[in-house]
Amino acid sequence: MRSDLLSTLMAAPYVSKFDVQFERMGDELTGILPFDDSIVGNPLIPALHGGAVGAFLEIISTASLITGQKLVRLPKPINITIDYMRPAKAADVYARAIVARSGRRVANVRAEAWQGRRQAPVATLHGHFLITPEGEIEDG
Amino acid sequence: MSQDLQSLLDELGPLMVDGSPHAVALGLKLDKLSPGTASMRVPYREDLIGDPETRTLHGGVITALLDHACGVAAFSGFGGNDTPATLDLRIDYMRPAKPNLDVVAEAICLRSHGLIAFVRATAHDGDLDDPVAIAQAAFMISKASVAAQERAKRAIARGEAI
């Protein structure tokens, strides 16, 4: 576990701006995006911004990658697909990610964000991230 | 008719950005909105950095920019009547955005019919041929947004602020 990279991630201006928190229970990491007016996308509904939920899913994916193995630096997203299942209400959002496969260069991650019921996710992500595991020879 | 739609978009376009707290928080700016296309930028800011080592913008900022630009393009594709919700969004991150440069998203609504719109967008930091990211998204007009819009219209008719 590289908690130093996790603190680098948490100290990143964008991550701290939205006050994203992590709770670790054994090898399971849950991310918390606390509700704030600044993450609302459509105040008429009101619903959270798809971009904010998408970004949060990217953050929990990154966090799960760096707590699951020793990496030299923060993973970089290669591509992501986000499915929006239902509007996210004006409330806290939680998320967990599963590292489906982690190779020497690329990791495949799936993540899920929910609010009230874990069984009723507001959005899911699947994506690939470029990683630099410790001891691997780096590309340029 | 296209002239009417353009004047409607000129009127409503800025509201699609300034009326969205998250878009305001990220400093998104609508550069251009015409029937079926939107151009939107996120000015480079220290508080949007994702990796302090490289000082590049967080991927999430690009995600939010692309989502919003695609949403506004879908809105114009639907004729400026309905606020669409994102069904799905795929983003390929070609390279990190360069520090200190604004990122601009150019979105095109490829088709909007009935409840669904398909949108494609490119994000770049100055050169459209050297993209930072590309996105493909689908949007739908949701019951929630139609209901919200009707509430807003009634409130405006009553002369209330929304």
Which structural traits does this protein have?
A: 140 residues; two-stranded antiparallel ribbon; 37% strand; B: 162 residues; Thiol Ester Dehydrase, Chain A; 4 helices; 33% strand
What would your notes on this structure say?
The complex is a heterodimer of chains A (140) and B (162). With 140 residues, chain A is an alpha+beta fold. Chain A has three helices and eight strands. Chain A has helices spanning 3-11, 13-17, 50-68; strands at 21-25, 28-33, 40-42, 47-48, 76-84, 93-102, 106-114, 123-130. Chain A has a six-stranded antiparallel beta sheet, covered by helices on one side. In chain A, strand 6 and strand 7 (106-114) form a beta hairpin. The model of chain A has no long low-confidence stretch (mean pLDDT 92). With 162 residues, chain B is of the alpha+beta class. Chain B has one domain (2-157): Thiol Ester Dehydrase, Chain A (Roll), CATH 3.10.129. Chain B has helices at residues 2-18, 21-26, 59-77, 143-157, and strands at residues 29-34, 37-42, 49-51, 56-57, 85-93, 103-113, 116-124, 133-140. The chains are: A alpha+beta (140), B alpha+beta (162). The A-B interface holds A 8, 11-15, 17, 37-45, 47-52, 54-56, 58-59, 73-74, 76-84, 87 and B 19-26, 46-53, 57-61, 63-68, 71, 83, 85-93, 96, 142, 144-145, 148-149, 151-152, 162.
* Low-pLDDT stretches of chain B: none
* Integer-rounded radius of gyration of chain B: 16 Å
Q: Could you say what the CATH topology of chain A is called?
A: Thiol Ester Dehydrase, Chain A
Shape of chain A: globular
Helix-strand sequence of chain B: HHEEEEHEEEEH
Number of domains of chain A: 1
**Net shape of chain B:** globular
Separation, N- and C-terminal Cα atoms of chain A: 25 Å
Low-confidence stretches of chain A: none
Q: What is the CATH class designation of chain B?
A: Alpha Beta
What is the number of domains of chain B? 1
Mean pLDDT of chain A: 92
The helix/strand series of chain A, from N terminus to C terminus, equals HHEEEEHEEEE
How does CATH name the architecture of chain A?
Answer: Roll
Name the beta content range of chain B: 25-35%
The helical percent of chain B reads 25-40%
CATH fold field value of chain B: Thiol Ester Dehydrase, Chain A
